[in-house]
Specification:
86% helix; mainly alpha; 0% strand; rod-shaped
Length: 44
């Protein structure tokens, strides 16, 4: 039974990592669309 929970935990950990990579790419894409300045500096 604990083996199942270990596998579920590992899968959840990988999904959590992928979520962070996708979010970082979205923030980078947003920052590229902004004019250079204070706001773009805060995003990056």
């Amino acid at each position: 039974m604990s083996n199942i929970f270990a596998k579920l935990g590992a899968i959840t950990y990988v999904i959590w990592g992928i979520l962070h990579i996708v979010a970082a790419k979205a923030v980078y894409t947003l920052g590229e669309t902004l004019d250079p300045g204070l706001i773009q500096g805060r995003i990056f």
